[in-house]
Each structure stands twice: as C-alpha cells, then as structure tokens.
Amino acid sequence: MSNRTIIPFGPQHPVLPEPIHLDLVMEDELVVEAIPRIGWVHRGLEKLVEKKDFLEMTYVAERICGICSFIHGLTYCHGIEQIMNIEVPIRAHFLRTLWSELSRIHSHLLWLGLVADAFGFESLFMHSWRIREKVLDIIEATTGGRVIFGSAKVGGTRRDIDNEMLKRIIAQVTEIEKEMKEISQTFLNDYSVQQRLKGVGILSKADANMLGAVGPMLRASGINQDMRKLNYAAYGHIDWEPVMAQDGDCFARVEVRVGELFQATDMIRQVIEKMPEGPVDVKVTGSPNGEFFARTEQPRGEVIYYLKGNGSKNLERMRVRTPTFANIPAITKILPGIQLADVPMMLLTIDPCISCTER
Amino acid sequence: MTYLAKSPWIIHYDATSCNGCDIEVLACLTPMYDVERFGIINTGNPKHADIFLITGSVNEQNVKVVENIYNQMPNPKVVVAIGICATSGGIFRECYNVLGGVDKVIPVDVYVPGCAVRPEAIIDGVVKAIGVLEEKHTQMKKGAAKS
Amino acid sequence: MIEEQKLIEIIPSELVAKVRDMFVEQYRLVQIGCTKLPDRIEINYSFDKNYQFINYRLILANDKVEVPSVSSVYWNALFYENEIHDLFGLNIVGIVLDFKGTFYETKEKYAFATCPPPIEPVIKTTPVVNIKEKGKPQ
C-alpha cells in the first residue's frame, strides 16, 4: 500500500470564487477520503431576526446570496404570506415567476461558464458570461439591480413591468435563446468536454436520495423532483415538466442545467403571454403568528425556510437550509476514487454557493 | 518604471461576502467589460499580484487567511475594499460573527461602496488603485535611494 | 395551493426508531433545524417523498438533555447535527463524524443558545412633559 498524504484544498483557491476547505486524503493521485470544513462565510444572519422586523428581513434574505438573491427573497415572502394568510395578487405571482426564471438562466449560465473554466475551456467560459450579460440587461431594465434585485416584498412585488417592456423581453429572450443554442451544442457534443465529464463522479439514484441531494444533482441521477411542482408563485398556471437525466455523472448534471436554460425561456414566454392585469401588491397589516416551512426551487435546488413568529414584529426564528448545504454530503461521498486533477471540476458540479450554505 | 501602471495583476478573495460582489468582480473580466484588454489579469497566486480586491465583511475565521494573502503579496501593494460589506459591514454589520469591514484587519487604500457593486464602479476603483500603486512605487524608490 | 405539512411530536427515546422507519420508507432527509424558545428547545426533522412533507418535532426541556444522533441512519445528518452542536451548544451523542465544535468556528460560542426574552406588547402612552422642570438648568 502506498503512503497516504493529506492535501489541503482551499479556502483560497484559483477555481473557487468562494472559500471552502477540503482535507483530501490521497493515495498517489487518487482521493481516498474528503473531509469538508466550512465557516469562512458564516455571518450568523439568522440571528438578525432579533434586531430587524419581519419586513426588513426581506432585504437580509435577498442578501443571503448574490446569485439566487431573488428566489431567497421570494421564499421568505412566500413563507410570511402563508403564516399571515395574505392573498397575493395574481399579477405579482406571475412577475415573481418571470424574475425567478430570469435568475435561473443567469445562474445556470454563470455556472456553465465556471465549469468550462474548471475543465480548461476558456473561450466557452467567456461566451457563457457574454450571454449572461444580456440576461442581466433585462434584469437591470426591470428591477434596477444587476444581481440583487430588491423586487420581492411581503404581499407582492415592489415593481411592475409594463406591457411594452414585456413584449421587448420576449424579443430579447428569443435572441438569447439563439445564442444559448450555440454554446449548448459545444457543451453537449464537443469531444473534449465529453472526455472530461462523462463517467466522472457518478452519484447513483439510491445514493442521491439517501444523501439528501437536491436540485439538478438529484434530477441528474434520475429522480423526478422539482419544488416548482408545489405550485408556489405562478408555476401552477404554466405547462412544464422537470428536466431529467439518468446517468448521474458530471455530464448528466450539465445536461440537466442546459435543459433548464431552455425550459426557463419557455416559461418566460408562457408567463408573459398569460400575464394577467391588476395590482402587484396588497397592504400588509399585523404581524406573523405561526410557523411555516417554505420550500422553493432555486437554480441549485430546493431551499427551505423555516419561519416562526409569535405575533410580534420580530420573528422568533428564521432557519434557512440552502441547496448547497444539502449537496455537500453527496459531494463528499463521490469524491473518493477520483483523481486530484478532477477535484476542482467535481466540486463545481454541485454548483457550490458557500455564502448560502453558511449564512 | 512606468510599466507597473500598464499591467497590474489582481487577486480576489471572498472574505465572508454574499457572492453578489464576487460575481461582479468576475464579470469585469468577461467580454462585456473585459479589463484584460488593459493588461489586468486575475491571478490565484498572491505573489503575482499587485492589487488585492477583497469583498465581504470578514469573519473571525477569515482573518488569518486575509492576513496571509496580504503578507504574501510583494511590495508595493494596494488593497481595494469592494462593496459596502467590505467597507463598513453593510446590512450584516449587526451580525454576531462579522468584524464589519476589511480595514479592521489590513490597511485599505481604496473603498468602493455599493450593494452589489456595479462593474463600472469596480473598474473605477481599480483605476484609482493603479494611481495609489504608482505613488507607493515612487515613494519606495525614494526610500531606496536615500539608504 | 398550500402544501400539506404534517407535524408529529416525538420524545428523544423514540427518535432513532422513527427516523429509521422513514429511511426504510425511502424518505429523503430534507433538513434538521433547531429552534430555541424561551421555555423549550425544538428540533425539527423534515422528510420528503414525492412532495409529501413530514416533520418530526423533538421537544427538549433544556439544553442539557442528551439527543441521540441519527447520523448512523442518514449519513448526511451529521452535517446538520454538527451545526446544531456548534450554534446551539446541544449535546448530541454518537455522531458518526464529530467535528467536536470545529465545524463553525464562531467568534461567539453557541451564539444561538440564548434567545431574547418574550417581548411585552408595547403600550403607547403620550409622554408627560413637566414644563416647570424643562426650564430648569441641568
């Protein structure tokens, strides 16, 4: 038996935009065991509920993470609305769906770029991010922000989009779709991409379920589960089916996310076509008294907000379990057996978002 | 020594940030803003870097990492605090686990506020940092000539 | 449109057996979350299978009570349990990979172990200003 070495990976590492640390127990080039350590981004924001009232917490929720920012805000508002029995106007539901899907496209393009960078395909990285800027343009035109939208609000949305702008969004999305088709051809058919991704880091169907994986990780392993099927926002009003893949390897995860890009553009079109007229928010009176587990689907998977109020302005507890936290067990289980050179890419395939994880 | 101003290399570290500013830093390097055309390259190695872009409000566990990166950078070096969290702690200022600002740990030369910072502002900040870098360099040369 | 959320209260001694039943039924462990309240501590174990959402709620009188670990059943529970140990200071016994308090290294240890006292309802009264006193030099 050869000697074992422990290689520390992170927290500051060229492929990681965020700090996470792994102790990789190596036997020559092969990983035998991986032990994660987190805590570099832990701020303790759940404790802020004691200092900020339940309406102010919307802003904190949006800043848990800069990538899935809007859906964090949405989930928080959804939870509060369920506790307080607030009937949100239907147009607000549609607008929320529209912004959710726009952020899904922006997040997936960002991830596709990063994973391309991790396997050394620099131009693909640049192209993904170039297209992503066009999505950000739509977001900026409709919300004023590029990454933090500030559009979620308990009782509806803070902004409306006029019908002329909605028409323009359809035109822009069609153009974006055309460009996404080009890069997805490379992601799905290119020889060197397949060489790096196919058969690497297989997560079996049973493991995915028992290790509590969520989102594209789960769906790439052949489990049909997407929290949008719970029909929050306007997902019950449009036709769609979760995107699935069967192989459970890195390539399958790319397939799922590429599929979701086009699913999102399709959803945006449906949402705009079916967009009802009416107000976008209702007045909120009183304070939340009760508890609710709000579950929604972020680009990275299921997020769950546990909210508990006691009738005062400040919530008693806000607990956030984000998709990356749920995917860390899966990644630590599939790392053993792969080569050191594949570790950065493997880690990226869960689409890690550490600031979400540690809050 | 005018070559310094022409291709400053940057290193980026996320010190307890929410990601928003980090992806904007990365966005600066991609085709839309493309700072690489000015010779600015994002490097992962502190010893190659002239400008340290740091985001986030810095928590206890990060202090050592930040100091480590800072100490490994060769002189002259410039620190740019990106985003309101790095500047003052921002919305997370009251959290129990953050120090509230990069300047509590290492000296900061340029502050770029915003939540999240726009790429244009980041580029402005880096341009300002290049000026500071140049100045520090001249001072270093003067100091070397005296001794 | 609201999903059904089942909530079942349990006691520490039956926890592991209940969780094992869920494992056999192939439920996915969604999360384990702890809530500190003025008079008790609640731990929620959430499970999901085909969008059926079930919560087991463990109620503890105080933070001295030993909580058995479920990480020998659901391996991924160890991350949640280490988190609860580091943030709430609960005594969870038998975690398969115990970080022993190094999972989160926070400035303030067991930051969530305290909770603010129950807030009294605010009674709005108009402040009485004593005009005579106001004129007095301090």
Helix content of chain C: 10-25%
Q: Give the helix/strand class of chain C.
A: alpha/beta
Order of strands across the main sheet of chain A: 1-2-3
Shape of chain C: globular
The CATH class designation of chain C is Alpha Beta
With strands numbered from the N-terminus, the spatial order across the biggest sheet of chain C is 1-4-3-2
Roughly what is the average pLDDT of chain A, rounded to an integer?
A: 86
Largest interface: A-B, 42 and 39 residues
- Oligomer state of the chains in this structure: heterotrimer
**Judging by the overall fold, what is the CATH architecture of chain A?**
Orthogonal Bundle
Main beta-sheet strand count, sense and barrel state of chain A: 3 strands, antiparallel
Into which percent range does the helicity of residues of chain A fall? 40-55%
Structurally, how many domains make up the residues of chain C?
A: 1
Give an overview of the whole structure.
By secondary structure, chain A is of the alpha+beta class. Chain A has one domain: Cytochrome-c3 Hydrogenase, chain B (Orthogonal Bundle). The N and C termini of chain A lie far apart (41 Å). By secondary structure, chain B is α/β, with parallel strands linked by helices. Helices cover 41% and strands 15% of the residues of chain B. In chain B, helix 2 packs across helix 5. With 138 residues, chain C is α/β, with parallel strands linked by helices. In chain C, a hairpin with a 4-residue loop joins strand 2 and strand 3. The C terminus of chain C is likely disordered. The chains are: A alpha+beta (359), B alpha/beta (147), C alpha/beta (138). Chains A and B meet through helix 4 and helix 12 of A and strand 1, helix 2 and helix 3 of B.
